[in-house]
Amino acid sequence: AQKITQTQPGMFVQEKEAVTLDCTYDTSDPSYGLFWYKQPSSGEMIFLIYQGSYDQQNATEGRYSLNFQKARKSANLVISASQLGDSAMYFCAMREPQGGSEKLVFGKGTKLTVNP
Amino acid sequence: DAGVTQSPTHLIKTRGQQVTLRCSPKSGHDTVSWYQQALGQGPQFIFQYYEEEERQRGNFPDRFSGHQFPNYSSELNVNALLLGDSALYLCASSLMAGPQHFGDGTRLSIL
């Protein structure tokens, strides 16, 4: 069963505007972590933001914020004041600590294009 | 502070050959995970190493094997290469329950 769903294959946004990238997840484990990574065309995966399942407040890191709605099992990424350099693939991932492992399960990604 | 480094950056092999990919974790990290990312897909977990032991394995055949050395660096070995093994192979390192930091990856092409 797919555990991470990103329903937007592609998104377009104008420079300086905000954009929301959707992510829903499925797990029966009460303890889990949610991550967003950015992957430019060069291939590197860049860690953006983390939200723990027990965190009371939504995570924020600079222009990135995570809209965490636990009951709806969603963890949307909000990028404020988009920049041309934000154009990339964005992946949502979940970590379920099983037997001490910290394996990440990724969604299929959303390609964000920022237009000037 | 060096991040995760992977070598080589690109590799071309033919079917049936064997390949070894290398990864040096970020300074201070003790756990290494390997992922395979096919074109247009998200990364898929291969396995994770901690204290030189394979701690968890994803749904990959035994042709995929690995090793972690005392200095925490790691190798991914793939035997009897298939065309479907063509992908970007990503190494990630972490410490305890911290976020995984990825290297730039190795692009493996099988002819």
Describe the structure.
Chain A has strands at residues 4-5, 10-14, 19-21, 24-25, 33-39, 46-52, 60-61, 64-69, 74-79, 88-95, 104-106, 110-115. With 116 residues, chain A is mainly β. In chain A, the strands form 3 sheets. In chain A, strands 2, 5, 6, 10, 11 and 12 form a 6-stranded mixed beta sheet that branches. In chain A, strand 7 and strand 8 (64-69) form a beta hairpin. Chain A starts with a strand and ends with a strand. Chain B contains no helices and 11 strands. Chain B starts with a strand and ends with a strand. Classes of the chains: A mainly beta (116), B mainly beta (111). The A-B interface holds A 4, 33, 35, 37, 42-47, 50, 91, 93, 97-109 and B 31, 33, 35, 40-45, 48, 50, 55-56, 58, 88, 90, 92, 94, 97, 99-105, 107.
Describe the secondary-structure layout:
The complex is a heterodimer of chains A (116) and B (111).
Chain A: E1 4-5, E2 10-14, E3 19-21, E4 24-25, E5 33-39, E6 46-52, E7 60-61, E8 64-69, E9 74-79, E10 88-95, E11 104-106, E12 110-115
Parallel strand pairs in A: 2-12
Antiparallel strand pairs in A: 1-4, 3-9, 5-6, 5-10, 7-8, 8-9, 10-11, 10-12
Chain B: E1 5-7, E2 10-13, E3 19-24, E4 31-37, E5 44-50, E6 53-57, E7 64-68, E8 74-78, E9 87-94, E10 101-102, E11 106-110
Parallel strand pairs in B: 2-11
Antiparallel strand pairs in B: 1-3, 3-8, 4-5, 4-9, 5-6, 7-8, 9-10, 9-11
